[in-house]
Amino acid sequence: MTAIFIEIKNLHKRFAIQPRDVINDLSLTLPHGESLSLLGPSGCGKTTLLRLIMGLEQPSAGSIEIEPTIAPHMSYVFQEPRLVPWRTTLENVLLPLELLKRDSAERCQHARELLQRLGLGAHSDRFPAELSGGMQMRAALARALITDPKLILLDEPFAALDERTRFRLQDLLHELKTTYALQYIFVTHSIAEAIYLGDRVLLLDQYGRQKLLTPVEIGPRSQDTKLSGPFNAMVKMLTQQFADIEQAA
Amino acid sequence: MKNILVEKLPAWIFFFLIIAIWQTIVAQQWVPSYLLPSPREIIQTTIDNWTDIGSALLSTLLSIVWGLGLSFSIGVVLAITFFAVPLLRKAVLPFCIFFQTVPIIAIAPLLVIWFGFGQPTVKASAFIVSLFPILANTLTGLQQTDPQLKELFSLYKPNVLTTIFKLQIPSALPYILAGLRIAVGLSVIGAIVGEFIAGGGLGSLIDSARTQQRVDLVFSGVMMSSVLALALIFLIDLVTKLLLGKRPYLRKA
Questions:
Q1: Count of CB atoms within 10 A of residue B172's CB?
Q2: For A125, which residue in chain B has the nearest alpha carbon?
Q3: In this structure, what DSSP letter does residue A36 have?
Q4: Same-domain pairing of A87 and A154
Q5: Model ipTM value
Q6: Relative orientation angle of helices A133-145 and A105-117, to the nearest 10 degrees
Q7: Minimal C-alpha gap between B219 and chain A (Å)
Q8: How far is A86 from chain B (nearest CA, A)?
Q9: Could you report the per-residue pLDDT of B128-138, keeping only the tens digit for each?
């Protein structure tokens, strides 16, 4: 379990139109079994880092090594649900399998169970436009889970949702982590969410220079955890560091 | 249903107003009826000459269905090919614009030389004028696919054809249908022009009515060709609705 899952070495990323590196000399190791939150203000390169890990962008310098057995079992959840409008919820969930040519009646049954689990059982034959924002996001989660991933990369997936829905989906993510033995990297700009969801939190600043790895030891989470002493102490500490970063800028 | 009625009502009121004014102008003899026959007269002429008009209508319809069917299938297949093979598009597409720019009346005599008098020339003429809007619209539609969805698909590394059939063609459907509706109108023009030169159908009926100074019959032929175009568009809308069912292909998400 101590084997390294992802190893990032001296990673740089610069986009052609920008004068400076968005990701500047970032090194990071993610061990087996650990989930990570990426926290930072807008424009700090959180999304870019996630896209680099997924292979949606290519690094300008440096390397990202992902355990070869894991690489084919990665899923990505975008900031918006990105459901295909002319496909029903069930068909959207089955899309990855169709594209990977892995679809079968058995998998279809699995998709139905997954939707049931995510509380969309009654909506599997509806079209995305007929679903609420929270339902669409859950459908996108189901689509990410259908391929039985070992690692899910989530890019601020709950940012646009109301608080109650967001809390429910946070807990769901915890639950899935345990039941499906999966790890995730979760991008957010909410300090509390970062602490709640991550075993560790990686703090990035707007200039890609300062990086801070903060171990979080809070134990098993439930929404009540957010009211606990250690949790709030952690929020306070990270808020301070957040402020320091902004001062330095 | 009620909404549709309210939606269409102004157009119907305007239509009947125009007809009423037209009828009045002619009935009062403000304009001689050998220049502008009254609506009533046109309808009477149509009924009296129904055997001729009906068979001309059928012949024109047949040519249009052929020409349009051909331009639709070739246009869509060509657009998909151009989309999948950009090099081919760059090489060939500029020359396809020929089909859009050439005045059909100018090449109709050439078509007669190639295909002879009658239907083959008319079909070719309907085909030539309606090919480009279908080709161009389909190509635009294929290129307009939502980049976010394209990125989603790319996560699973499907082959080019799978992406085209599962993503790009469904996304392009509104464009393809818009192209088809434009093509319907053009193919009616193409067929009538073809018939002026090659004979047969409503085109030659209108032409011979003109030489006999039968303005009422000219109007009757014109009316029939426009009814034909409207009926075809209506039919296409109906078939699309039946084929697509309730799937929101046409609604932007």
A1: 26
A2: B247
A3: E
A4: no
A5: 0.88
A6: 140
A7: 45
A8: 5
A9: 999 999 999 99
